Amino acid sequence: MQNRQQIITRFAPSPTGFLHIGGARTALFNYLFARKAGGQFKLRIEDTDRERSTDAAVEAILDGMQWLGLNWDGEVVSQFARADRHREIANLLVSEGKAFRCYCTPEEVETLRAAAFAEGRALRSPWRDGGTPPPDTPFTVRFRAPDSDVVLADAVQGDVRWAAKEFDDLILLRADGNPTYNLAVVVDDHDMGVTHIIRGDDHLVNGGRQSQLYDALGWVRPVFAHIPLIHGPDGKKLSKRHGALGAEAYREMGYLPEGLRNYLARLGWSHGDQELFNDAELIAAFGLEGLNKAPARLDFDKLAYVNHHHMRLAANERLQELLTARLQGRPGLVDGAIAHLRLTPAMDMLKERSKTLAEMETQAYFLLRQRPFDVDDAARKNLSPEALERLSRLRDVLATHTDWSADALGDVLKAFAESEAVGFGKVGQPLRAALTGGAPAPDMGLVLALLGREETLARLDDQTSKA
Ligand code: GLU
Fold it and tell me: What secondary structure letter does DSSP report for 147?
């Protein structure tokens, strides 16, 4: 017997593709709800569709969940492996007269369906009340749809009601003996002790059908919470163009798992005005009452903002490791110990200036460029012969300077501009062009400090020697 007191949730993806953003959010909500209650979060792979299910998709889903930190309890359940148990329950329903063998041919079903449609009701099989089976005819097992209305007390949608005539005599076992989706889900959820099902509202009607099966089996219905699907920024159904991508694509784009987790949690769930949560806060705050009835819109600006918050909180060593892995093998960059030495003191600056790891790569580029490098066209405009002569003089000043801190260097640059009787831009712009090649970079004092004396002088020499 399952302990019915314990909260058990589950995520039940079909392995026909990667862990897309909507699935990740569904998994997250179920995870948070279970963790908050001190219950269990289970994972079931709905791999009954043998043609569309692939091992690669299972791997991608497990990887995505692990990356997002959505750790499940116990073994991963394969739905396909449980087909015998599904058949057992279908046959139990037959023996109780709540399901029956239907000998209609596919053509007959089509005719019946057309007639039912014309009369504005769902399909009823002529075999629902028995009959003499024709010899050697394959049969399906159908649920004998009850005559009473179905009411689903949904935690998000409220009471949802369907008239009895809206539901077919649903197929439970196909002619080849294989169980159908709704039967498999009900049996699995029951056997896994699932108490709460949070999932997309594209399954709302299934929730009605599944409620009928729970009732017929005399099993306690779980609490259903059908959440609106995620929409694109334009309010339309989410598509690839909007970012209906796999978790690994968000990883590639440089979001941290905790940033994406925080953002996804707020996509369709709210807790007052609070936007930023660490994991403990999310678990403490999460509840079904905060789930929204209106569809949430994907908003990449907000995702970037939330991710930036988590980048700032992340340990420098961890970010540096993630950044280094991303930069690995990029041509034109120093690597190994030199890169490590140069990045370590730069991490605070890089965190401030980057909302994602991808932006951090861009922001770190100037530091790691292998010299000598070419200055890009826009920056080269600042390297007139006159500017290069000025940079030569600056180089000599810097060569004698010893305090290599950002502040002291900033003062040196200002004093130099004054001694040249020019505005700071006449010094700063050529210097920036020579030291960064036109790549994004912070204040010049800090650029010099982070590059170090030797590299700074060498990069200046590279440009002035071309004059
Ligand atoms: N396997 C279904 C899907 O991926 C989910 C079923 C459920 O959550 O009940 O859409």
Answer: S
The 10s digit of each residue's pLDDT in 179-219 is: 999 999 999 999 999 999 999 999 999 999 999 999 999 99
Phi-psi region of 257 (alpha: psi -120 to 50; beta: other; left: phi over 0): alpha
Ligand 1 mutation pick, 14, 45, 61, max ligand atoms within 8 A of CB: 14
Ligand 1 centroid to Cα of residue 14, in Å, is 6
pLDDT tens-digit map of 1-39: 445 579 999 999 999 988 999 999 999 999 999 999 999
Residue with tokens 């700071």: 424
DSSP states of 68-129 as a string? Answer: TT-PPSSPPEESGGGHHHHHHHHHHHHHTTSEEEE---HHHHHHHHHHHHHTTS----TTTT
C-alpha 321, offset from chain centre: 22
Counting from 1 in the atom list of ligand 1, the atom nearest the Cα of 10 is 8
Q: Is the CB of 226 under 6 A from ligand 1?
A: no
Report the alpha-carbon distance of residue 246 to residue 173 in Å, rounded: 33
The answer for 408, left when phi > 0, alpha when psi is -120 to 50, beta otherwise, is alpha
Is any ligand 1 atom within 6 A of the Cβ of residue 42? no
The per-residue pLDDT for range 356-389, each reduced to its tens digit, is 999 999 999 999 999 999 999 999 999 999 999 9
Looking at ligand 1, which atom is closest to the CA of residue 11?
8
> Ligand 1 within 6 A of 12 CB?
yes
Cα 165 versus chain centre, distance: 39
Number of C-beta neighbours around residue 430 at 10 A: 27
The DSSP line for 351-383 is HHH-SSHHHHHHHHHHHHBPSS-PPPHHHHTT-
Q: Classify 452 in phi/psi space as left (phi over 0), alpha (psi -120 to 50) or beta.
A: left
* C-alpha Rg value of the chain to the nearest Å: 32
End-to-end CA distance of the chain: 85
Indicate if ligand 1 lies below 6 Å from the C-beta of 231: no
Q: Which residues have a catalytic role annotated?
A: 240
Nearest to 457 by CA among 394, 406, 373: 394
Cα distances (angstroms) measured from residue 22 to each of 223, 243, 283, 410: 20, 10, 19, 49
Does the reported pTM lie above 0.85?
yes
Nearest atom in ligand 1 to the alpha carbon of residue 46 is 1
Pick the residue whose CA is nearest to atom 6 on ligand 1: 12
**Cα 163 to ligand 1 centroid, rounded to whole Å:** 24
Q: What is the Å distance from ligand 1's center to 12 Cα?
A: 5
Pocket test for ligand 1, best of 25, 41, 46 (most atoms within 8 A of CB): 46
Instruction: Determine the Cα–Cα distance for residues 265 and 222; give it in Å rounded to an integer.
Output: 22
